[in-house]
Write the structure tokens for this entry.
Amino acid sequence: MPVSPKQARTLKHRSWVAFLVLPPIVFMSLFVVYPILSAFAYAFYEWRGLARGEFVGLANFREVLFGATMAPVVWNAFSHNVQTLIALMIIQNGGGFLLAWLLYKEPFGFRFHRVAVFVPVVLSTIIVGFLWKLFLNPNFGLVNQALLAVGLDFLARPWLGDSATALGALILANAWHFIGFPTLVYLAGMQRIPSDIIEAARLDGTSEWQLLKTIIWPLVAPSTTILFTLLFIGAFNWFEIPYVMAGLDGSPYGNTDVLGLVFYRTAFGNQSASIQNFGQGSALATLIFLFIVVFASMLTLWLRRREIQF
Amino acid sequence: MTLSRETTMSRAISFGFLVQIILIMNSFIMLYPVVVMVFSAFKTTAQIFDHPFAVPDFTQVQNFSRVLGETSMPTYFMNSILVTGTSIVLILVLGTMAGYAIARYESRTNTFILLFFLAGLMLPLKLAVIPLFILLRDLHLLDSRWSLIVTYTAIGLPSAVFIMAGFLRSLPTELEDAARMDGASEPRIMWSVMLPLALPPMAIAAIQNAVPIWNDFFFPLVFIQTDSYKTLPQGLTTFMGEYTTDWGMLFAGLTIAAAPITLLYIALSRQFIQGMTAGAVK
């Protein structure tokens, strides 16, 4: 039966649309959906190197959460992720908000400062990590040399070798790297506030502090939501800075160990123990993933509630 | 009356002064480490140790010539360009295809397709690196540049779909209809009428993805073993391990690795800022 012109058109049209959407969908299915679904499945099997063994139920999860060898390491790392999250919320996002507010007033030279604050953001985390590792070197690093130069040499210490300061140093390096991001996101949020709201408040004689607290902060709530959610995800995926600055074992003595390092060591081994355990690695990845999804969604919903439409 | 005005004025001036001090200090903290990195690259190790803050003799370029001549840095550099470039092309082509279909053709499946890509935007592929590793091994892509290209394309594609669909949806239908009346085919309408208008969002999608891809370290660390396939961030760790005590070389290596993206950023700061904050700014 010959195809009617209308049918031919729709057939042609349909194959054109299919030609457009199928390659991206197939690509995503193969390299995103399939690996993520498999990641859950792998956690339920025993692995011998790269070969999948028997189905072991929840054994891998039990070992990661409660096992004698894995659990102490995992919980120690988890506590460092939490400390990092809290510290970065204050320094990186809080500092970013204050810087954005200063830039928002468009003082002299604000264009320069806006570009300057974003310079470290474009650098590779690897470059940032190595740079600060060299600067924090106990003998020849810039930080201790600077303290010596201004007569504060009693403060000088092996920042990355000292259990008390190592994690803090990594957190500050991360804040130096990324503070420009929240700064400029908040700045964009502030610039979207209708200027008549600010002007009306100024005419009413509202003080600068009141303006910041009662008008600007609530009105940039959408920026806060997205920045805190991104920071949450970032803090529990933290890997590069600790890897470069403290090494795969989170030295000194696991004081900078984080979940990302534990996951990498478990799944792909390290120099001292080249044991690969894909089962426990997958279980840990699944737990981190579920933790991020559950808490990040709760955080987003909670933060969304305080957003005001205007 | 005059008195209170004067105090408010002097208050405003001192407040402005404080703002200036904070901003100048902050920009100093942001830029000075980068300046010291570049300065140290022109010094010998002994000069770095003895005069860490001194301005160097900028004619001393032996560290740079050694990095470029003796090490694999140029190879890492080429690999980074190849991997980033190919990934961006694939992201833009596939992202525009899907975005165009979603934005310009009414279909019941559109919402489903959009949700499908939304899921890809939310899921951190880093945590699925074990199955990805096994999949790439089975496809014989492991330890090759393609392992990185397909991974980065998969990570970047959802954001490109959203940027492109969002923009293309905002275009009026009149242009399209006029071309259709003239008997232009659908591919021709897409290629000659609509896509020339869509270059600005493509630039945003390209920058948003290019910076994280250029800087990524995690996936090369897991997928690449062979030195000649390493990209810049991973190669840098090899390089830093080889020259641990030669600080002049270390800083020269860091400077060379940081130079292209920093210079590009200074030249195109507005586009970089817009592109990199595109996901977080409505």
Notes: The CA atoms of residues 29 and 60 of chain B lie 26 Å apart. Residues 2-41 of chain B form the longest helix (40 residues).
